[in-house]
Amino acid sequence: MAQESTILATLRAALAAHGLEIRGGFAIRDDDALPALPDGAPARSVILIGNVGGAMWPAFAASRERLVPAGSTDPLDDWTRAVIGPLSGRLGALALYPFEGPPYFPFQRWAERAEAVHPSPLMIYIHPQHGLWHAYRAVLLLPDEVSFAREQTARPCDTCAGQPCLSACPVGAFTGTGFDDMTCARHVDSDAGTECRERGCLARRACPVGAGLAYPRAQMAFHMEAFLARRRNRS
Ligand code: B12
Q1: From the CA of 123, how far away is ligand 1's center (Å)?
Q2: Of 92, 96, 115, 232, most Cβ neighbours within 10 A?
Q3: CA 84 to centroid of chain Cα atoms
Q4: CB 60 less than 6 A from any atom of ligand 1
Q5: CB 32 near ligand 1, within 6 Å
Q6: Are 20 and 137 contacting, i.e. CB atoms less than 8 angstroms apart?
Q7: Closest CA to 51 of 229, 222, 231
Q8: pLDDT, tens digit, for every residue of 135-167?
Q9: If you measure from the C-alpha of residue 140 to the centroid of ligand 1, how many angstroms do you get, rounded to a whole number?
Q10: Closest by alpha carbon to 141, among 44, 24, 50, 51?
């Protein structure tokens, strides 16, 4: 147990320097069918790593030039690999990333096992304190058994009066059970979509949970541009 705490404490401190956090973890089951570790041993635990609120953005902005190759088309993904790769190596772990795919690793399903998040009507997961202002950057598969307590919480959307997220999108891209990403992208890419493009998704911003943790403006614009770039490649 002492060794497990040391691993987590070391990792937590190293991640904090990059504005990242441990978001929880869980013991691996046989049916997870996860890859073996770099030395061939089976992985025993999953640690989920992510960002909450605006903490990651200044760290990314300050080290981007040093850590991301010039001309990178996915600078945040390349930055994540540059930050997590060496940490993973030191722990004898294997790092997996949400952006590797298709096929993609099931990060949202893993998140539900690791921490108190719930599906929101916007298809992204809501956290009782962080609201919609959080994301996942990597998991580490570890050779050690690390134990985590997962909090049980109610889904905030169930008691949210009026669910403002579902009426805030100017083009009705959210139905509560689906997201029309091409309708969203067409609007965000147009003159009428300047507000969403530059200040972030209006539906996500309408959520009252964790509203004070909304990303800084530059980060909002960065994610929207990355989303648009992916959609433009598809159409
Ligand atoms: C592909 C993808 C997209 C595509 C979606 C294409 C499509 N229509 O399928 C596009 C490019 C549109 C997209 C956009 C965005 N995405 Co995206 N995306 C992904 C990605 C890379 C893969 C998803 C996937 O296919 N997983 C594979 C399946 C097998 O995984 P899974 O966990 O088992 O799947 C779960 C979900 O599908 C979910 N699910 C299934 N049905 C439903 C229905 C409802 C109502 C809900 C709530 C969930 C849900 O439950 C499944 C089981 O738990 C994930 C990262 C990842 N690896 O998961 C990010 C991810 C889901 N995206 C994320 C985000 C933040 C966004 C954006 C908001 C980005 C932005 N602009 O800022 C936008 C808007 C999304 C929105 N409002 O819905 C985050 C969500 C974080 C969170 N809080 O949950 C993720 C996890 C990436 C990350 N780094 O954290 N995305």
Answers
A1: 7
A2: 115
A3: 14
A4: no
A5: no
A6: yes
A7: 222
A8: 999 999 999 888 888 889 999 999 999 999 999
A9: 19
A10: 44
